[in-house]
Each structure stands twice: as C-alpha cells, then as structure tokens.
Specification:
By secondary structure, the chain is α/β, with parallel strands linked by helices. The chain contains ten helices and eight strands. The strands form two sheets. It has a five-stranded parallel beta sheet with strand order 4-5-6-7-8. Strands 1-2-3 form a three-stranded parallel beta sheet, with helices on both faces.
C-alpha cells in the first residue's frame, strides 16, 4: 500500500527541527510522496532544496496563499516563473496555493475590501501565469467558492488542471467542479462527525477522481484530532475514505495514488 499526501506544509516541521522524524514516520505509514505547498516567497527556495535532498519523496509547489497577499503581491508573483526553469526533478509540480479567502479578512470593512481586492488581482495574475506555464493549479477557496469559479472560468485555464484543495463545500459545488473537469481534494475533515456534506461531496466526486491530503499541520484526522497534524496521519484519512466507499484500504490507496500521479505529473 502506498499513499501520496497531495498537500502539506513541511516548513512547519523544518522550523521545529522535526523534519527528519516527520519524514521517517511518513515512510513508515506507507507514504510514497509528499507534496509540500508554497504559500509565499519565503518558503519556495526551502522547498526546492528539500526536493533536491529528498529526491522523489518530496515534491513542491510555488504559490501565494491569499492570506499572505499584501500590497507587494505583484512582486511575489513576478518571482515565481524562475522556478520552472529548474530541471524536472526540482521543478514545481503545480502553481499554488492561490485563491481567495474571506474567512481571515480583518473586521474593518475598508481594510477588508482593500485586502480582498489584492487577493482577486493576485489570483487573476496567478491564473494567467499558470495558463502560460500550462501547469496544474492548487486553489485555496474559503468563503469565496463562487468568486473563485468565476475567475477561473474567465482565466482560460484548463479546468482539468485545477484542484480545489481542502474541499469543504457540498455535493452541488463538487458537481459544478466536475462539470468543468476540475477536482476537489479531501483532508482529515472527512473523519469529523459534523462533516456529512463534505463526505457526500467526496462520494459524488467518486473514487476514480479522489485525491487525499493532510494540509498538515492543520486539520488533524480522528483519532489524533486535537494534536498537530503530520503527513503520516494521512493513513487515517485514507482508512476512513475506504470505509466510506466500501473498498479495501489497498484499493483506495491504489486509486488515489494513481489519481495524484496523473494530476501532478509525478
């Protein structure tokens, strides 16, 4: 059995001097590849180095998380393309995460409007770059599903290259992505009792399109909820997904691994 964590943040474990142990536990849990996701320019070079040091096991993306979008967002976007000049083994596997986030906006209305405006512009430019590079796109959408869909539609990006990570919407929204050719990927949220709509969305998308992620160190699955998440805990999310679909863990792992490899070109 092998699994791929399609979305994690290894910078946290580097900062805690816990990377080696985290990677060891990941291998022991059956993970074949970890995709560590870029959120701003201060982690892109680190992730490139991890990819070089842990060839094949760690892959990375380059992106500007909407919560990291500031007044200098255009300068950040302008620094992204150089990473695609790398040799294939140390080249990003996707652009992202990029997108929109209303949840973390400040309470001051004027300030919130300004920041959300920057997010929109950064997302538009990020999508344009992804179209130019013809690469997969990892989308962060929180409280802004409709706006994200509309901007992707307008961008001309191939929807078959789009994944909404940490999908938390319901069956209607996943159906809308599927109609366009896009994907949702699912986290440990599917193990939470309150997440019926998310589980239903996962079932609507189906096993043949399913990808799993931890979003570590966030969104820890049951039975470790309440503790910091880590890639090794993807096992528990996969086990819960297998139960939901009524298949063996081996079948679930085989499908999700194949889907991740196809989407990210691994």
């Amino acid at each position: 059995m092998v699994l791929i964590d399609t979305h994690t943040h290894l910078e946290t474990f580097v900062r805690q001097d816990a990377l080696d142990e985290t990677l060891r536990r990941s291998r022991e849990a059956g993970l074949e590849t970890l995709i560590t996701v870029g959120t701003a320019s201060d982690d892109w070079s680190l992730y490139r180095e991890l990819t070089r040091t842990h060839t094949g096991f760690v892959r990375y993306t380059v992106g500007l998380h909407p919560c990291h979008v500031g007044e200098n967002w255009a300068e950040e976007i302008a620094r992204m393309p150089v990473f695609w000049n790398e040799p294939r083994a140390s080249r990003p596997v996707a652009l992202g995460e990029i997108g929109l986030d209303r949840f973390h906006l400040p309470t001051d209305v004027a300030e919130a409007e300004q920041i959300f405006g920057w997010q929109r512009e950064a997302f538009i430019d990020g999508l344009a770059l992804a179209r130019q590079l013809d690469c997969p796109v990892v989308v962060h959408s929180r409280g802004a599903f409709r706006e994200c869909v509309e901007l992707i539609d307008a961008s001309g990006v191939d929807w078959k290259k789009v994944v909404f990570h940490c999908f938390v919407e319901g069956p209607a929204e996943i159906s809308e992505l599927m109609e366009r050719g896009g994907y949702g990927s699912f986290t440990g949220i599917i193990t939470y009792k309150s997440a019926d709509a998310v589980r239903e969305a996962m079932k609507v998308q189906g096993l043949d399109r399913l990808m799993l992620e931890t979003d570590a160190p966030y969104l820890t699955p049951v039975p470790h909820r309440g503790k910091p998440n880590e890639p090794a805990f993807l096992y528990h999310t996969a086990l819960h997904a297998a139960d939901t679909f009524g298949v063996s863990l081996e079948t679930l792992a085989g499908k999700t691994t194949a889907n991740a490899k196809s989407f990210f070109g691994l």
